[in-house]
Design a protein that fits this description.
The complex is a heterotrimer of chains A (262), B (388) and C (407). Chain A has 262 residues and is of the alpha/beta class. In chain A, 21% of the residues lie in helices and 26% in strands. In chain A, a hairpin with a 2-residue loop joins strand 2 (47-55) and strand 3 (58-67). In chain B, helix 7 (163-177) crosses helix 11. Classes of the chains: A alpha/beta (262), B alpha/beta (388), C alpha/beta (407).
Chain lengths: 262, 388, 407
C-alpha cells in the first residue's frame, strides 16, 4: 500500500502532475540578516571562503568553507530559539520529530496590504476571512504569509530605518489564534523574521516567536516563490540541518504542488 | 718634526703593463697572473723567488693576497693587500720599500689588477663603503661622478678655474695617449670637443670622466745591488709622503692630504717642484690633477688658472704630465689606476717609454689619490723618483 | 583632470632606489617614518655626526639619535644627468647637493632644484621609494611639493584616485572632504552592508568626485568584486574598516565580538591585501600619479591593550602585525604603507573614555598630512602620543596602568 503511494508520487513527479517548487533564497554573503542593537551578540553573516578552485590550493577540486549564524538566509526557527520554548521537549533542530518536516501548507495572500504599507499586519479577522474562502486551517499545517517581500532587494528588503525595521508580519492576536485555536505546525514569512519589523513593541513582544515556540511550533523565514503556491494543497518539505542542540538553521525548503494547481 | 729616513739602497725596476681591455671575461686573478708572468719574464727572476707580494685590487673577492700565494706558487715572507684605489700604488711602494730596506724580504712584486664586466662597475658601487651605502648611493650619487661634481663646483669657485683651463689637461693627455699603443682612447680630443661634451653631473662632463676597464700594472721593488746583479734598469725612490683623511674639518674638499705633507716631500727629495722633468698625477678627473699641482707646490690654488694656461703638458712640452695619457685616455683599470703613473714614470726614467719618451727625463713626481667613501677623497700620497 | 594613459606604451615596472643600509642607519628610518628630524649625536660630547657612525669621530663615545635643528646652507650642487643607478637614471636629471648642516656635519642631500649655492635650506628626513631614510633639502619657506624629487618620496593625494574602505567610519566624511580639498581626482567610499542605512549618505555624495561603492571587508567576494572593478584605478587605499566593541575577556559577547573584530580589522586587511595589493603594487611606477600609498587606520590599543578592550585590542594588534607583511609586499612596488594609530575617537563606542578624544576631522587631517609628507607611522591624539611614548620608556608601567583601568 505504502509502496503504491510512493510509486504514485514518483510517477506524478515524473509526468508533472506533482511539481517541486523551491521556496529557498540563495545563501549569499550580502543577504540581509537580523539586526539587533549592537551591544547584543550578533549573528555571524553568511561567509563563503574558497578552499581550492582547481589551483595550487587543490589542483583537481573546488570547495569552500562556509560559516553563518543559525538564523541566516532562508532558515528554520526551532522552539528552543525563544525563551518561551526553552522547556519544550524535542525543541532543538537535532531532536525535533522528523515527521514534522513534511506537512501541508496554507498560503495567505497579503500582497495588496504589504504593497500599501510596509508595516502591514496580518490579523485574526483576515485569517478568518481566508478560512471563509478556503476552508478551515487544518491542525498541523504550515501557515505561510505571502507578502511578495522576497521580490525586494537590499535596503528595501531589510526596511531598516532609524526606529528599526519596517516589514510586515502577524499581529499578536493572529498568532495566538493560529497557535492556540488552530494548532498550526508553524508560521512562515518572506521577511527576515516571522514577526513584523516592529514586533518588539507588540504585546507580547515578538508574538510569533512567543506563541509559536512556547507551544513547540516552528518558524520559517526568508522564504521566496510563495506566489507559485496555491492557497491550499501544497506540501512543504522543511528539514533543518541536524545541528547539535541547534536553535535553527538555514535549510532548503521545497513545496510539492499538484500540476493543475500551478 | 724630523723627516722620515730615506729609502737609500731601494730601487724600482721592471715596469709591466698588461694591456687594458674595456670589458674582460677573465677574473682579477687572471690579470694578476699575467702581471706576475710578465714580471718574471722581463726580470729573469723566477716568480718563485719573489719573496714579497703586494696586491692592489677591488675585484679579487673572495680572495686577498694570501690566497694568491698558493694560486701562483709563491712562498713570500711579506704580503700586502691594498684595496685602496688610487692611493694603493704609493702606499704599496712605501711599505714594500721599507720591507726591502729592513731586510724583511728581497724582491717584492707590486701588482695592481682589476677586471671589468659590463655590470661590475655598478655592482662595485653598491658595496664600496659603509658611508656611501648609507649616505651617497641612495641619493642617485652612486659612482664618483656626482660626489666629484660637488667638489669640482666648489673647487672651481674657490680657485677661479674655468672648464676651458681644465680642458688643457685633458686635451694634452689625449695627445700623449696617441703615442701610447696601450691606451684605449685612440682618437684625438680637441678643446671644443671637451667643452661641448654632454653633461654627466655639471661641472663634470663626459671627457672629465675615466673609462672603467680591465688591466694590470706591476713593478718590482728590490735592493739596488740585486737590480745591478740582475742587469735591470732601475730608478731610485728619493721621497714619499702618505696621508689619509688629511683635513677632516674642511666642509668641502678644496685640498687633499698632500697639502699637509708637501714640505716634507720636497725636503726629503732635496729639490723643489721646479726640478722635476715630468709629473704623473692621479687623474680620475682632470680638475683633481689641477688640485694636485697646487697641493704639491707648483702654484697657489688661486694661481691655478694662470698655471694651467702657462704650461704645455704634452710629452714634448715644458711640463710633461701623465705622459701615458693617464687614466683619462688609457683607461681606469680599477685599483691599478694608482699604479699607472708609477709604472709610466719608471718607463720614462729608464728611457723605455718609446714614442712618448720625455727627452732627458731624470726626475719624476708621482702622486696617488684614492677612496671617496663619502664626500671627499681620503687617501693621498706622492713619491719622487730619480733615474739611476 | 588627470592625463589619460597611452595604452600602447608599456607601464613602467617599479624600480627602487638603493635600499641597502647599515643596521645603525635604520635608527634614521624610525625617525623618518614618523617625520622627525633627528641625527646621530655623540652621547658624550654632544656633537652631531653624519653619516651614521658607530662611534663619535671626535671622542669615540657612543652615538645615539637625537632631534636636531634642520637648517643648512648649500655648499655645492649638481644634477646627475647620467646616474649609475637605474631608478635615478630613468628619473634624471636628479638634483643633489652638498650642504653644511647648522648642527655641524656636511651631508649629501636630495636637493630642491630651486636651491642656489649659498642658500639657507630646510632639511627633511624622509623615506624614499625604497622606504629608507634620506635627507632632502630645499629653500627655507619654499614649496617643497614643487620638487619632483619630493613628489617621488611623498604620497600626495593631489590628482590621485583614492579608496576609503569604510564610509561608516567616524573619519570617513571629514577624510573625503579633506582629500577632495587636497585635490584628489576621485574618491571611492566603500559601504558595507549597503542594505543598512548610511546616515551620512547625502553629505558623502556632496563631496566632489565621491562615489559610493559596495565593500564589506569581511567578505571575500565583496572585496574581490570591488578589486575587479576598480583595483587598477586605486592609487591610495585608506583602510578605515573597524568594529569597536568594548568588552573584557569574560564579557558576554567577548568571543563573538573579538571574532567579528578580527574579521574586520585583521582578516579584512588580508582580503584587501590579497585583492588590491597586487594591482596597486604593479602600478607603483605608472606615471607621476601611479599607485603610491596604503593607509591602515588602527587603534593605539593595537600597541597597548586595555583589559576592557581585550578582543578589540587583539584584533588591532593582529592588524598591525599584518601591516609588516603588507608593507614588505607593497615595498616591491615602491608603495608606502602608513599606519595611523588613533586614540579613542569621538564616537559612541568610546563614550565612556575620558577626553581628550580624537574627532573624525582631526584624524582625517592627520591622514592627509601624513600622505603629503610621505610618513610611515602616524599617531593621532594626545592620548595616543602619550601612550606610545610611555610604552617606549616603560612598557610594564603602561601595562599596570591599563590593568587598573587607567590609560
Amino acid at each position: 500500500m505504502a509502496m503504491d503511494v510512493l510509486a504514485t508520487l514518483i510517477s506524478a513527479l515524473a509526468c508533472g502532475q506533482v511539481r517541486v517548487v523551491d521556496l529557498t533564497q540563495t545563501l549569499t554573503e550580502d543577504f540581509p540578516t537580523i539586526v539587533l542593537p549592537p551591544e547584543f551578540g550578533q549573528s555571524a553573516p553568511v561567509r563563503i571562503e574558497q578552499i581550492a578552485h582547481y589551483d595550487a590550493a587543490g589542483p583537481a577540486w573546488y570547495w569552500n568553507n562556509l560559516s553563518f549564524g543559525e538564523h541566516t538566509g532562508t532558515h528554520f526557527d526551532a522552539p528552543a530559539h525563544w525563551f518561551t520554548g526553552r522547556d519544550v521537549a524535542r525543541g532543538t533542530v537535532d531532536t525535533l520529530p522528523a515527521e514534522d518536516m513534511i506537512a501541508p501548507a496554507c498560503v495567505v495572500d497579503c500582497t495588496a496590504g504589504c504593497a500599501a504599507d510596509p508595516d502591514f499586519l496580518l490579523t485574526r479577522q483576515q485569517l478568518e476571512a481566508w478560512e471563509a474562502s478556503h476552508g478551515r486551517i487544518p491542525q498541523g499545517a504550515w501557515v505561510l504569509m505571502r507578502s511578495d517581500w522576497s521580490q525586494r532587494k537590499g535596503a528595501a528588503y531589510a526596511g531598516l530605518r532609524g526606529d528599526g525595521a519596517h516589514t510586515p508580519g502577524p499581529d499578536a492576536e493572529a498568532m495566538r489564534w493560529l497557535v492556540q485555536e488552530r494548532g498550526i505546525l508553524g508560521f512562515g514569512t518572506e521577511t527576515i523574521g516571522t514577526d513584523a519589523g516592529q514586533g518588539g513593541d507588540f504585546t507580547p513582544s515578538y508574538p510569533a516567536h512567543h506563541y509559536l515556540h512556547g507551544a513547540g511550533r516552528y518558524g520559517l523565514q526568508c522564504l521566496t516563490n510563495l506566489h507559485l503556491l496555491p492557497p491550499t494543497g501544497a506540501v512543504l518539505l522543511a528539514a533543518p540541518l541536524k545541528v547539535h542542540a541547534g536553535s535553527g538553521s538555514p535549510l532548503r525548503v521545497l513545496a510539492l504542488v499538484t500540476g493543475d494547481e500551478a | 718634526m724630523a723627516l722620515p729616513r730615506g729609502y737609500d739602497g731601494v730601487v724600482l725596476a721592471v715596469p709591466v703593463t698588461v694591456p687594458y681591455v674595456r670589458h674582460s671575461t677573465r677574473s682579477a686573478q687572471w690579470w694578476v697572473g699575467r702581471a706576475l708572468a710578465a714580471l718574471a719574464q722581463a726580470s729573469g727572476i723566477s716568480h718563485h723567488e719573489f719573496d714579497g707580494l703586494s696586491v692592489a685590487s677591488f675585484s679579487l673577492a673572495p680572495d686577498t693576497s694570501i690566497g694568491l700565494t698558493q694560486h701562483f706558487g709563491l712562498s713570500p715572507r711579506f704580503i700586502d693587500f691594498l684595496p685602496l684605489g688610487g692611493v694603493a700604488g704609493v702606499v704599496g711602494l712605501r711599505r714594500a720599500a721599507r720591507a726591502v730596506q729592513a731586510g724583511d724580504c728581497d724582491v717584492v712584486a707590486c701588482v695592481a689588477a682589476d677586471t671589468n664586466a659590463p655590470q661590475s662597475f655598478r655592482q662595485s658601487l653598491e658595496q664600496f663603503s659603509r658611508f656611501s651605502q648609507d649616505a651617497v648611493y641612495p641619493y642617485g650619487a652612486g659612482g664618483p661622478n656626482v660626489s666629484f661634481a660637488l667638489i669640482a663646483q666648489a673647487f672651481m669657485a674657490a680657485t677661479g678655474l674655468e672648464r676651458s683651463d681644465i680642458a688643457r689637461l685633458a686635451v694634452a693627455q689625449r695627445e700623449n695617449a696617441l703615442r701610447n699603443p696601450d691606451a684605449l682612447m685612440k682618437k684625438p680630443l680637441s678643446v671644443d670637443e671637451y667643452m661641448n661634451a654632454r653633461a654627466i653631473a655639471p661641472p663634470i662632463h663626459l671627457f672629465d670622466c675615466v673609462m672603467p676597464c680591465a688591466g694590470a700594472e706591476a713593478f718590482l721593488v728590490m735592493r739596488e745591488a740585486a737590480a745591478l746583479a740582475q742587469g735591470l734598469p732601475f730608478v731610485r725612490l728619493t721621497a714619499a709622503i702618505e696621508r689619509h683623511n688629511g683635513f677632516p674639518t674642511d666642509p668641502v674638499m678644496l685640498r687633499g692630504g698632500w697639502a699637509r705633507d708637501v714640505t716634507d716631500l720636497w725636503a726629503m727629495a732635496g729639490v723643489g717642484p721646479d726640478a722635476v722633468d715630468l709629473v704623473q698625477t692621479y687623474d680620475d678627473y682632470p680638475f683633481v690633477s689641477a688640485m694636485q699641482f697646487a697641493d704639491l707646490g707648483f702654484c697657489a690654488p688661486a694661481a691655478l688658472p694662470e698655471f694651467l694656461r702657462g704650461h704645455d703638458f704634452t710629452v714634448m712640452g715644458d711640463l710633461p704630465h701623465n705622459t701615458s695619457g693617464g687614466q683619462l685616455s688609457v683607461g681606469q683599470a680599477g685599483c691599478a689606476g694608482g699604479h699607472l703613473g708609477l709604472v709610466e714614470a719608471l718607463r720614462q726614467l729608464t728611457a723605455t717609454a718609446g714614442a712618448r719618451q720625455v727627452k732627458g727625463a731624470r726626475r719624476a713626481l708621482v702622486s696617488g689619490f684614492g677612496m671617496i667613501t663619502y664626500d671627499r677623497g681620503l687617501g693621498s700620497g706622492a713619491v719622487v723618483l730619480e733615474a739611476a | 583632470m588627470r592625463d589619460k594613459k597611452n595604452p600602447t606604451l608599456r607601464t613602467r615596472h617599479p624600480l627602487l632606489p638603493p635600499a641597502a643600509r647599515s643596521t645603525a642607519a635604520h635608527l634614521l628610518t624610525a625617525a623618518a617614518a614618523q617625520g622627525r628630524f633627528a641625527l646621530p649625536c655623540c652621547t658624550q660630547c654632544g656633537r652631531f655626526a653624519w653619516p651614521m657612525p658607530e662611534a663619535c669621530p671626535e671622542c669615540l663615545a657612543e652615538v645615539a639619535l637625537k632631534d636636531a635643528p634642520n637648517e643648512a646652507r648649500l655648499i655645492s650642487a649638481t644634477k646627475a644627468e647620467v646616474p649609475a643607478d637605474s631608478y635615478f637614471r630613468e628619473r634624471a636629471p636628479w638634483w643633489v647637493g652638498l650642504v653644511q648642516m647648522g648642527c655641524g656635519p656636511q651631508a649629501l642631500v636630495h636637493l630642491h632644484p630651486a636651491a642656489q649655492v649659498g642658500d639657507a635650506l630646510d632639511m627633511t628626513l624622509m623615506l624614499d621609494r625604497a622606504g629608507q631614510a634620506v635627507l632632502h633639502a630645499g629653500p627655507i619657506g619654499g614649496d617643497m611639493t614643487t620638487d619632483p624629487q619630493w613628489q617621488h618620496m611623498t604620497a600626495d593625494p593631489r590628482g590621485r584616485r583614492i579608496l576609503i574602505t569604510d564610509a561608516r567610519h567616524i573619519a570617513a566624511l571629514p577624510l573625503a572632504i579633506a582629500l577632495a580639498g587636497a585635490g584628489a581626482a576621485a574618491i571611492f567610499a566603500g559601504v558595507p552592508e549597503m542594505w543598512k542605512p548610511l546616515p551620512q549618505r547625502e553629505a558623502l555624495l556632496a563631496v566632489p568626485g565621491l562615489v559610493l561603492v559596495p565593500l564589506d571587508v569581511t567578505s571575500d567576494r565583496s572585496v574581490a568584486d570591488l578589486a575587479h572593478d576598480i583595483g587598477g584605478k586605486v592609487e591610495i587605499l585608506i583602510n578605515t574598516a573597524d568594529l569597536p566593541r568594548p568588552g573584557g575577556l569574560t564579557a558576554p559577547t567577548a568571543q563573538a565580538d573579538a571574532r567579528a573584530a578580527m574579521e574586520t580589522v585583521a582578516f579584512g586587511l588580508m582580503r584587501l591585501a590579497r585583492s588590491f595589493g597586487p594591482p596597486m603594487t604593479a602600478r607603483g611606477a605608472d606615471g607621476p600619479l601611479g599607485a603610491v600609498a596604503w593607509v591602515n587606520v588602527l587603534s593605539v590599543f593595537s600597541r597597548a591593550h586595555p583589559p576592557a578592550l581585550a578582543g578589540y585590542g587583539a584584533a588591532h594588534a593582529a592588524g598591525l602585525a599584518l601591516c609588516h607583511a603588507l608593507r614588505a609586499d607593497l615595498a616591491t612596488g615602491g608603495l608606502r604603507l602608513m599606519t595611523v594609530l588613533t586614540g579613542p575617537t569621538e564616537d559612541d563606542w568610546f563614550q565612556t573614555f575620558d577626553p581628550p578624544k580624537v574627532s573624525g576631522k582631526a584624524l582625517a587631517a592627520a591622514i592627509v598630512a601624513g600622505l603629503q609628507r610621505g610618513l610611515e607611522e602616524v599617531s593621532v591624539g594626545d592620548l595616543a602620543k602619550d601612550l606610545l611614548q610611555r610604552l617606549d620608556e616603560n612598557p610594564k608601567a603602561v601595562e599596570r596602568a591599563l590593568a587598573s583601568g587607567r590609560i
